[in-house]
Write a structure and sequence with these properties.
With 632 residues, the protein is an alpha+beta fold. Helices cover 35% and strands 18% of the residues. Helix 8 packs parallel to helix 11 and helix 18 crosses helix 19. GO terms for molecular function: ATP binding; ATP hydrolysis activity; ATP-dependent protein folding chaperone; unfolded protein binding.
Amino acid sequence: MNKGHISVQSENIFPIIKQFLYSDQDIFLRELVSNAVDAIQKLKTLSRKGEFKGSTEDLRIKIEIDPDKKTLTISDQGLGMTEEEVKKYLNQMALSSANDFLDKYKDEGTGIIGHFGLGFYSSFMVAKKVEVVTKSWQKDAKAVKWICEGEPEYMIEDATRDQVGTDVILHIEGEDEEYLEERTISDLLEKYCKFLPVPIQFGTKEVPVETATDESTDEAEDKAKEVETEEVPNIINNTHPLWKKNPTDLNDQDYLDFYDELYPYSDQPLFWIHLNIDFPFHLTGVLYFPKIHNQLEVQKNKIHLYSNQVYVTDEVKEIVPEFLTLLHGVIDSPDIPLNVSRSALQSDRNVKKITGYITKKVADKLKELYNTDREQYEAKWEDIGVFIKYGMISDEKFYDRVKDIVLLKSTEGEYHTIDAYLDKIKDSQTDKNDVRVVIYTFHKDAQDSYVTAAQDYGYDVLLLDQVLDNHFIQTVEQKWDKVRFVRVDSETVDQLVAKDEEKETALSEKEQEKIKGIFKDVLSLDDHRLEIRPLPVDAAPVQIVKPEFMRRMEDMQRMQSGQLPGQGLGMHQIVINGNHPLIAQKLNNMRSEEKKVDFTKYLYNLALLNQNMLNGKALTDFVKQSLDYANS
């Protein structure tokens, strides 16, 4: 057996870094600032251990742009490097100083960000030349400068630096000069560094100076005076974000203020969950239930994933089930396995554990609200109902946890759990096959005539108007025994709940064929879409119904094409009430062919009006015809 060593050509490594190491070159700033945070955290650890005797008060990172020199500088007041350390960590790729530090100070190194030893090299994604000026914390250490122009060659020379710490100076030219613009850097700091644990200064800002007011001064003169201001460092980050604090030290306003910090100008959240777990993994965070407004897509990608307060991504589908992406907030865990560039998650057992933990915490919070404040739970149902139904449809474990707290709302505004509602309608809405039939409408006002007819018949009607209800009712039908949902316009009222009852029409078979023939000719209908039934005398003379299976199929097609389920007429059936006087007497006895055509159109338009499908010229003609009939 022969053994050998794989050869890596160093001159090829920089193009690989520039093109393939990171999916987004903006990340270079996150990596360099994270390194600066680590340098300061390490110095604080040495101070706690008594090895560093200097002050660690007010340590910060500074970001500076010099448009004239075309440089972007990231400066820290951390532990710095000796010349030997520069050669070791900057000249040997993928050798992490963080790992070395953690090995030495295992119990003191929490909060250290870097692990791979590659973050520094992301600077070459935007810089033509990189200079590092650094001075170590160690006694009598001299400052040194490391210079590299994106090639394997580098230079090290003596330098001047008064304080302990490191400056990373990026020389930027050409197409990457956008990173010399204040707005660009400000946006990147806002995105990636907003909650890092060390203060980050980017320029200065003007703030008002509080001055005592002379009460004897005339009010007009006071107003005329200019407000005095002073220039102070512009600290861009919140070093102690809410999710890192103890929940017992926080009140509702703290959570609302933090939500406003995350999502300015958004509606207030409904409620929230504070995540805090140490075993079997470390995870903190805050998840908010937003007002969904019966929408799904626009709400997603609002959970931000952090690792040790470093922003990673808002694509959290690997650790958060699909339905939980409707939530907003922050998840922070140093145990989430990231790839080298920290831009994506890797498959890992911890990820599944975290997913299960978050799902359980969300379900527990919902059950707590249901059990402790049912009134508030019902008041928030319009928003949390969409979320819960989404979870029931897509996640079996979540379904098991919340199936007893999902609510059904009647058209009268009453809320019931599924079991309670099925018990309520057991006597009145159980069909001949012992199946409980749940009757519902998607819009109480638009389908008022159908809803009223069902209620007059002694039935209860639910309001199912949320975007996922088409899927939700199928889930209930699958999970609950002998339950069937039918929309209020899927059948004539006497057939919504099928019974073993036979009724007769006032029309003879010959007269029925005659009436069907008139409708077929006038409306150009196929025979299978037309039916005469012995409906109650006070029921509408003509009704338009759409069988439940057909409507569901059409609604599924609409959702797949990006449209919301609706009332559209589509494939429908026309039911003629053979017992209604306008059919059995008036139309049946008409002799004038012209009048038969007009009257048939009138009855059909009346049915369309009940479906809210009559509009434009047809509505104008219908109103005119109604007046004519009233005056005749």
